[in-house]
Amino acid sequence: MKKITIMAFLLAFVLAFGACEEPQNNAPVLRNPEGTISYLFPSYEGFYYEAPSVLTEENRLVVSYTTNATEGAEDSVIAVRTAAKSGSAWDFSAEPSVAVAPSADGWDKYNVGNGDIVAGSFTYRGTDYAYLMAYEASPAAAEKRFSVGLALSSDLKNW
């Protein structure tokens, strides 16, 4: 019994001190052009921000997330926001753009969200694209089953 108690104590000791690692100094810091820490989203009042996804490129950070298009409404869209690298910080001065919105009538006319972007080389119907986004959507508000959609872009603005 003594051996089990000693082993449990040693395991707890190792786990406790193993979790006390020094933070890394190379983590990206979001800063605005004035050099102060920046908020990723332009406004919090009346808007929700969910399911963020981050794509890191050499000199650019791309964040996609689900938000509402209209303040105070439940009209989900997928927005994309980019940041340019400025030294060791990221400048999020560019305004967010809507990448995917619900269609007027179709399988994705409600609950568009959870977009995830990957960079690469994609060809669809003879046209080359640099980005592919997978997202989920449903045709009705009460729908509990979602379908997966794919969207393509060359510039992160036109999908």
Please characterize this protein's 3D structure.
The chain is 11% helix and 45% strand. The chain is mainly beta. It has one domain: Glycosyl hydrolase domain, family 43 (Tachylectin-2, Chain A). The strands form two sheets. Strands 1, 2, 3, 4, 5 and 6 form a six-stranded mixed β-sheet that branches. Strands 7-8-9 form a three-stranded antiparallel β-sheet, with no helix packed on it. It is globular, with a radius of gyration of 21 Å. The chain starts with a helix and ends in a 6-residue tail after the last strand.
Architecture blueprint of SSEs:
Blueprint (H helix, E strand, L loop, with lengths): L1 H17 L10 E3 L17 E8 L3 E9 L7 E11 L2 E3 L5 E4 L9 E15 L2 E12 L8 E7 L6
List keywords for this structure.
three-stranded antiparallel sheet; Tachylectin-2, Chain A; six-stranded mixed sheet; 45% strand; globular; mainly beta; 159 residues; 1 helix
